[in-house]
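User: I'm writing a tutorial on reading structure tokens. Could you give me a worked example: one chain, its sequence, then its tokens, then a sentence or two explaining what the tokens reveal?
Assistant: Sure. Here is the example chain.
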Amino acid sequence: MMTSAIVSAMTLLHVTGARPNFPKAAPVIARLAELGVSQRLVHTGQHYDDRLSEVFFRELNLPRPDVNLGVGSGSHAQQTAALLIGLEAEILATRPDLVIVYGDVNSTMAAAIVAAKLGVPVAHVEAGLRSFDMSMPEEVNRKVTDALSDLLFVTSPDAIAHLADEGIPSERIHFVGNPMIDSLLSHRDRLDSAAARARLALPEDYLVATLHRPGNVDDPETAAELVAVVHGAAALADIVLPLHPRGRAILEALGIGDHPRVHVVEPLGYLDFMSLVSGALAVITDSGGVQEETTVLGVPCLTLRPNTERPVTITHGTNRLVTTRSIVAELAAEVAARRARSDRTAAPTVVPPLWDGQAGARIATVLVDWLDDRSAR
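And here are its predicted structure tokens:
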């Protein structure tokens, strides 16, 4: 595919800010670079710890950010206000022809609002996902971002229906697959579960848990139930828990690491974490991305939430929704079945459509064609 001289002269601004954004952005940025498109990368600094941020740039071969806004943490209002101010200054200074945002974090919504108010087109990668739970900050971010976007790139067919129901014109919607899976597939040969397990002194049979959502960790009573779940899981197998800054204090105060088979560790880099997931008996999570990654790796995933914005991981993957009351019994069944398998690394027979490692290329093609048409008009 040839990129026109007009498009080559344009500048596309990518806005990333938190751990889930980076593996989604990497394949899009790489393909646009191959096409000779001028790009600028903003890291808002919403996640600023090395293990939540910098390590992803090293491991995913992302270019260094042109600017880091360093907004840091704070309440949703404080963080969003800092994002709006920093992103407005960046967009006014650089005047990009298109702003590309990823996922559903506060940086995503803030960039969409600023760009829309300044008359700059917005492209949303991972549009149309819906949990229909407005108590989730991410759901608010998704709906606001999609309403303001000119191009909406969706990862699954259900997202198309959600956007149509919200009145988004079909010509704005593009079903391209999942760029996060591009990153996983392109680095799969580098995953080494045995080495990652050895570094943490884990036995051959182990579980992985990632738990950080406000609905699970902010309320002391709910957090205590979560600790009981983790300890119940540890009765089945050793469990490694990379502990996110959100909820760390309350979970540690409740004794989450007191069980001898619970291994509480700092957040891990992309390759270390995915290596552990690839070799696990099962994963307990409340993360959206982990539901997708386990689907492709064929690892059983028990999602401790009442809903998911990624139902395709249930219909076409290994994911299921569980409660604190049901999870230990369901996990015991999964662990027994997993231990009985002779080959735990067998690839899944069914994966969601277009989760084939080519989403970044499809997104880049749509972007270049759209910019060509726009310039011609």
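What the tokens reveal: The CA atoms of residues 201 and 330 lie 26 Å apart. The mean pLDDT is 93.
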